[in-house]
Amino acid sequence: MPKKLIIIIGVIVLLAGGALGTMSQLEIGPFSAKEDVDKSATVAAEDRPPDPPRFVAVDVLLVPLFTGDRVSGTVQITVQLETSPKKEDELKKLVPVLKDAFIRDLNGYIPRLIRTKGQIDVNLVKQRLKIIGDRAIGKGILDGVLIQSVLNRAGR
Q1: pLDDT of 121-153, one tens digit each?
Q2: How far apart are CA 85 and CA 107, in angstroms?
Q3: Domain tally for the chain?
Q4: Which of 51, 58, 73, 149 would bridge with 65, disulfide CB 3.0–4.6 Å?
Q5: Does 61 lie in the same domain as 41?
Q6: CB neighbours (10 Å) of residue 12?
């Protein structure tokens, strides 16, 4: 009798374990997904495209080029600053600080760049302005720098 009881209890435990495992794998009964309503909300949020970046205009940056004691030319750089819509107002307030930092740095950098490379490398200037901007106002506000035009005007 005790052998039969142990075998019956073992079979019941195996059947219960198998039933629970099957229900778990098929996600039925107490294991069903309760997030069906939440899935549609998260899918809608994920399908929404991210907000497009905003661009803040900066006055034209003028960098004088000197030969000896005379101005031999001027480099004119037109720049826009890229940021997120949430930080656009904050960046607009900091534009004077950025413009000052840009001009201070470019007064030394542009002549050195022209001396070494013979021309202005727009990608190097863009990277340089991004670094200077992050140093001046802190990281996270300025997402990128868009250089619209660079004019190297020789003096008369």
Answers
A1: 899 999 999 999 999 988 888 999 999 999 888
A2: 31
A3: 2
A4: 73
A5: no
A6: 10
